[in-house]
Every structure is written in structure tokens, then in C-alpha cells.
DNA sequence: CTTATGATGTACT
DNA sequence: GTACATCATAAGG
């Protein structure tokens, strides 16, 4: 029997806990007969008023509204006009929070990944938030998508936490640099 | 391996 | 008008 998708109880935790515990979990992307399985190995936590780097730092806007919605939904945004970034909404409804998926290791479906990012070396396919979404064919249409339904199009299932995860500074931000809210294997 | 830089769309002030 | 939760490429070591 297949492992069930992670549910709302998991995502409703504090964003830092979700970000850490997502390390080692599996992200599965399925379209028709094609499937990609990757293991998450890099995440970052973003919160609200206590997080100057967060889109939600100054309250609700049309873009960040999904960060305030129910946990377990996807928050997608366009980065630098070109790249789609995928987050998973955390915290109880009304309290903003999301985990940015920044990196993963290929487990299955490397052929489809290569089709999505032709000419790219395998070791560079999934090591960045924009690369990850391109490799898995995930775009803005997934904004607000509920990850907890078990729909095979995209799902996350438990892995096992590595014995040791590292906590470091987040990447690519100018504010909130002192917070150690980036998690890697 | 490292650092530097242009590309590119839009949310927000 | 400004600032991006980035990436591919080029040049140097």
C-alpha cells in the first residue's frame, strides 16, 4: 500500500518545524503515465510580522493571500520575472507562513526531468527553487492547490528525517539575514 | 572551483 | 520607479 500524503495536521505546525521535517520527504509529480519522484533536501521558512524577508511581512496583499490560507495549500509566485517558486502553506488559518522548496535529489523519472530542462547536467537539475519547478513542470496554475487531497498530480509523502539537518541563513534575501531559517540535509 | 552580470515580469510604494 | 525568496553564462584561478 502506498504511503498516504501528508495531511493538514502536519502543515499546521510552526513553519520552522514544517521546513525541517520536510527534509527527506518525497515530492511526487504525475501526468498521465509519466512520473517524477524527488527527495526534498533544501527548504526555507517564511513567516509574517516577525519575518522582514517574507512576502507577508506587511499584511495581506493580492499576491501573498495564499500564505494566510489553510495549511497544506501551495503558494506559487513569479520570481525575478522568470522563475516559478513553490511554497507550502503552514500555520493555522489566518496566520501567514510558508515553506519554500529550494532543492531536491532525483529518485525516479530522470528522463522526464531531462525533457523539461534539456541540456542541463543531472546534478544541476534540482538545486534551486526555480530549477525544481521547471524540472517538475510546476507553474503558477498550481497556486492555491490543496496538497492534502491525495490527488496524484502532485503530492508529498513522508520520508525519514536525516539524523542531522543543518540550519543556516536563507539565500537571496536582503532583510532578515540573521535568521537561520534555511534547512538542508 | 569562484565571482560578476544581464535577462525578465510584476507587485508594491 | 524600485526591488526583487533566481538562473545561465562567461571569464578568471
What do these coordinates show?
- It is built from four helices and eight strands, in the order H-H-E-E-E-E-E-H-H-E-E-E.
- By secondary structure, it is of the alpha+beta class.
- Strands 1, 2, 3, 4, 5, 6, 7 and 8 form an eight-stranded antiparallel β-sheet that branches.
- It is globular, with a radius of gyration of 15 Å.
- The mean pLDDT is 96.
- It binds a DNA duplex (13 and 13 nucleotides) through strand 3, strand 4 and helix 4.
**For the terminal residues, how far apart are their CA atoms?**
27 Å
Major beta-sheet overview: 8 strands, antiparallel
Contiguous helical run count: 4
Helix content: 10-25%
Shape: globular
What is the overall pLDDT average?
A: 96
Rg: 15 Å
What string gives the helices and strands in order? HHEEEEEHHEEE
> How much of the sequence is in beta strands?
25-35%
The strand count comes to 8
Structural class: alpha+beta
- Runs with pLDDT <50, length 5+? none
Task: Detail the topology: elements first, then pairings.
Elements: H1 8-11, H2 15-21, E1 26-31, E2 34-46, E3 74-79, E4 83-89, E5 98-108, H3 110-116, H4 129-135, E6 154-157, E7 166-168, E8 182-184
Antiparallel strand pairs: 1-2, 1-6, 2-5, 2-8, 3-4, 4-5, 7-8
The structure holds a DNA duplex (13 and 13 nucleotides).
Task: Describe this protein with a few key phrases.
185 residues, alpha+beta, 4 helices, DNA-binding
Describe the structure concisely for a colleague.
This protein is 14% helix and 29% strand. By secondary structure, the chain is of the alpha+beta class.
